[in-house]
Structure prediction request, 441 residues.
Amino acid sequence: MALDFSIILRFQDALLLGLWMTLKLTLICVILGCTFGFLVGLARTSRSLALRAISSVYVEFFRGTPVLIQLFWIFFCLPMILGIELSNLASGVIALTLYMGAITSETFRASLKSVGPEQLDACIALGLPRRNQVTNVILPQAVLRAIPTLLSNCVSLFKESALVSAVGMADLMFVGQNISNNTARPVEVLTIVALIYFVIAFPLTRAVSLIERRILAKLAI
Amino acid sequence: MNYSFDFQSISFAPLWEGLMVTLELTAAANIIGIVGGFLLALLIMSPIAVIRLPAMLFVEFFRCTPAIVQIVWFFYCVPMLFNVFLGSMTMGILALGFNLMAFNAEAYRASIQAVPREQIDAGIALGLNPLQRILYIVLPTAFRASIPVLLTNGIGIFQQSALVAIVAVQDLMYQGKTLATETYRPIETFTVVALIYFAVSFPVTQVVGYFERRRHLLMS
Prediction:
């Protein structure tokens, strides 16, 4: 069959609009999700049993079910349960933020745990007050260690955001599928859509491994 | 909230059928992923650029694009490009299997590279030839080291397999969607479907956690 990629140029505005939606959604959920994930990460290490139990159930549930069903649940069930109308964007943001919160909380928890007990011992030996132990010694190291994994969590979120097309949000994937259905040229359109995702995600994954090496080198000193 | 729940209206027979399809997809994709991933890992580490570069491109492409894009692409474009028409189940298995292959290849590569240099030196000292060193020293150590990641990726594919519902493979997610529309009971249906997914993947993640903790204990 003859491929004709020039067809893409006719639809570039629509694709750019879709890409903008994907990026907007990703960015909002990265910010909200990381903040929420950090709090949940702290809750999972807290001394209160109730807090630990609730946060564990949340994290395990969101990590143990497909993102697609989470999206469906939030799109179709949450408005019914709450008895309010939720806009598409709001539902998408809620669903992906909850997903991002669950995966980043694990990242924060692991990096908090990776700061060795000798660091705390050193704090005590230096006579640092309790609040400085956390804010000046433990947290900076933990966050530094979390950065590479957080970045790859962001890449995951960027990729998972394509799922919102299944519930009718006009993101890059949704626009691409519409164009491909209307023009009957799936090969060209879907390939370009895949390439757009690749062009954004690939440099990010490279950056992750670069930063990882630099941070590991820094921590080793 | 004044919503009255009615879990009675959900018939479990279609969900059970769907779960079987999902499990079948997962199992078949895992076989492709575990075997193919290892071969792919060997290709990635090949010193010959002509072999290495296409393999790396394959891996990076699957790792850096959304799974849903891959699946939709696969279902629409493969029949058009290559003129092959396979059943939707086979297509689903291949799409998920290729995706898993890429992720598993990275896991294998990392653990092959993590085999301590001393072990290989010991192999040389014992007079093993290169093939024996790979077969008896690198492979067993690397495979054992990658088991937790392989399991995690495998259960990841179990979750990702819900995506084939979009291209009308009648898996658990698809049956759930149909049931929710038929019964007008999305809350109950989607909750039950989510719980089924959770009931399968949670025990596996716990087993992975157990293996990892044990490994750490053995290593320290």
Remarks:
- Chain B touches chain A through 41 residues (CB under 8 Å).
- Residues 11-219 of chain B form a domain with the MetI-like fold fold (CATH 1.10.3720.10).
